[in-house]
Specification:
The protein contains 15 helices and no strands. It is mostly helical. The protein is flat.
């Protein structure tokens, strides 16, 4: 435990990078990247009248320039601001810092591409047949690029475990939904969920689904680092209940942040593996990664009482309820034939993400309560002192 504590010291956010610093640098990043997008637009659209969506369209160019700007801004924010606000990031090994940075950068790049393509596609449908001149098209690219850079820098500089979990959930849901819409095989759901990641579903669905899984795995690995920091801070203030102190076994039970982190990292590796090894490429390899993710999550769910002592009893009850719900979902598929494999997979994903969301919110609430200053006076005494002062 000393090894983990030395990497995640219980520190307050550094004041070297203030909220105003973040806002000012984000505005500068938006301005510079807007000029970058404007120049690229003038070069690409010279002598043409680009459409809003399609090849060499405003949407396509905006997606490229926005992705470059979002990635650059995110990397800059991680290097100069996030590590200053979260000094523990500098203390973990370099390769883990690279994984965290890579996850944050790639999720902002991929999100920018998806959002801009979807937005310009919708605009093209709303303004059917519209073509812009060079100036209007370049200004649209500049605006999209600047906004992407601004939001990416803001999001990266202020990231924490709670916000990162929200980003992960939204990104995975959006990526999977887009891959469903891009699937050329409309009956993909009749076989299994992973069929979206095969070439039979179409190249658009193939790349969207698998890249979503790979990037989500990297984001989950980054999320594990932030969550571990919060768990270590909780473990440093953990005290066994007085009624249980007379039991030697109860005194030995303490929070185990490292085990929780390893379980989440194994899930992250498994998700990356599922994306990199589609089941039509290797059924055995794909199934092995699925089983790895399943076993890691089951260990985490069943072990919350031992791994996370001090959490509310209702949280542990919810963890075992999640295990029971997964078992019922399995029976609905195998024994009662209520739905097919796709239905079972969607049910499990929904259950696990719901539990992770509760886990994050509970951890965040406990961390804030432990860090909040406490008073030994009653509310009435505090009110009297306030009036007298």
């Amino acid at each position: 435990m000393y090894y983990v504590h030395s990497q995640y010291p219980d520190v307050i956010l550094s004041k070297r990078v203030t909220e105003l610093d973040i806002e000012r640098r984000a505005l500068w990043a938006g301005l510079f990247c807007s000029l970058f997008g404007l120049i690229v637009g003038f070069i690409v659209f010279a002598g043409t009248r680009p459409a809003l969506f399609g090849s060499l369209s405003v949407g396509a160019v905006s997606a490229v320039t926005g992705a470059v700007s979002a990635g650059t801004s995110s990397a800059y924010a991680f290097r100069t601001m996030l590590r200053a606000r979260e000094p523990w990031l500098k203390r973990i090994p370099k390769w883990r810092q690279v994984v965290v940075a890579l996850g944050l950068v790639l999720v902002h790049v991929a999100s920018t591409v998806m959002i801009l393509l979807v937005v310009f596609h919708l605009f093209q449908q709303a303004f059917y047949g519209l073509h812009l001149d060079v100036l209007a098209g370049s200004l649209a690219v500049a605006a999209a690029t600047g906004i992407a850079a601004y939001l990416s820098l803001e999001a990266t500089a202020r990231i924490n475990a709670e916000t990162l979990s929200v980003v992960l959930g939204i990104f995975m849901a959006a990526g999977v939904l887009i891959s469903m819409l891009l699937a050329e095989d409309q009956g993909w759901w009749k076989s299994m969920f992973s069929s979206l990641g095969t070439t039979q579903a179409g190249m658009g669905s193939f790349w969207t689904f698998n890249l979503t899984l790979v990037i989500s795995g990297l984001v989950l690995a980054a999320f594990a680092e932030f969550l571990t920091r919060d768990l270590v801070r909780l473990s440093q203030t953990y005290r066994c209940r007085p009624s249980l102190e007379r039991y030697k076994l109860a005194r030995m039970v303490r929070p185990r942040p490292r085990i929780v982190r390893w379980c989440l990292l194994l899930v992250a590796v498994a998700i990356i593996g599922i994306g990199m090894v589609p089941y039509n490429l290797s059924i055995e390899g794909h199934s092995a990664f699925v089983q790895l993710a399943s076993i890691s999550m089951i260990i985490l769910l069943l072990g919350t009482v031992v791994l996370l002592p001090g959490y509310p009893a209702v949280f542990h009850l919810l963890s075992y309820t999640a295990v029971g719900a997964i078992w019922v979902a399995f029976l609905l598929w195998t024994e009662w034939s209520y739905y097919n494999l796709t239905g079972f997979e969607l049910s499990v994903v929904a259950i696990l993400f719901s539990w992770i969301s509760v886990f994050i919110r509970t951890t965040s609430a406990m961390t804030q309560d432990r860090l909040a200053p406490r008073t030994t006076h009653s509310p009435s005494e505090v009110a009297k002192k306030t009036k007298s002062s």
